[in-house]
Design goal:
Keywords: RNA-binding, Transcription, Transcription antitermination, Transcription regulation
Distance between the termini: 33 Å
InterPro entries: NusB-like_sf (IPR035926), NusB_fam (IPR011605), NusB_RsmB_TIM44 (IPR006027)
Radius of gyration: 15 Å
Largest sheet: none
CATH architecture of the largest domain: Orthogonal Bundle
Oligomer: single chain
Family: Belongs to the NusB family.
Helix content: over 70%
GO molecular function, one term: RNA binding
Pfam family, one: NusB
């Protein structure tokens, strides 16, 4: 793959992140019982099946497995910063976005601002008109809480 982007095609990480979001959203309805079933769910997700980039698929798998493995800690951060909102009341789209972005903020080297921006972009694509503000508010508060 060439290192230069062509046209307006999104980068590998954004594509992988979008696939990961879609898998996580699907898991909010039917959870895979174990890691092997989760890996199969990733590979058979329509968004992943349509993806041509092996790098994007690998990145998506890493994100999904990371979110699922660290979900308790991630949910604790969401709970701490989502004032007056219990996890059960947060829409599945927003919850999947928050979990994904917080995983990146907490367990990877992505800058917090970049993770927040990616979350807002996902919210614009998959959420409603209020999603981006909700996502921004919680992720921004979490970023301050997590430190630089």
């Amino acid at each position: 793959m060439s290192s230069k982007k062509k046209g307006n095609r999104p980068g590998i990480r954004r594509v992988g992140r979008t696939c990961a979001f879609q898998v996580l959203y699907g898991q909010s309805f039917v959870k895979a019982p174990d890691t092997e079933a989760l890996k199969k769910a990733i590979l058979f997700n329509p968004a992943v099946v349509e993806q041509e980039s092996a790098s994007a698929i690998e990145f998506a798998e890493d994100l999904v497995l990371g979110v699922v493995s660290n979900r308790e800690a991630i949910d604790a951060v969401i709970d701490e910063h989502s004032q007056h909102w219990k996890l059960s009341r947060i829409a599945k789209v927003e919850l999947a976005i928050l979990r994904l972005c917080l995983f990146e903020m907490m367990y990877t080297d992505i800058p917090h601002k970049a993770a927040i921006n990616e979350g807002i972009e996902l919210a614009k694509s998959f959420g409603d008109e209020n999603s981006k503000n909700f996502i921004n508010g919680i992720l921004d508060a979490a970023a301050r809480g997590l430190g630089k």
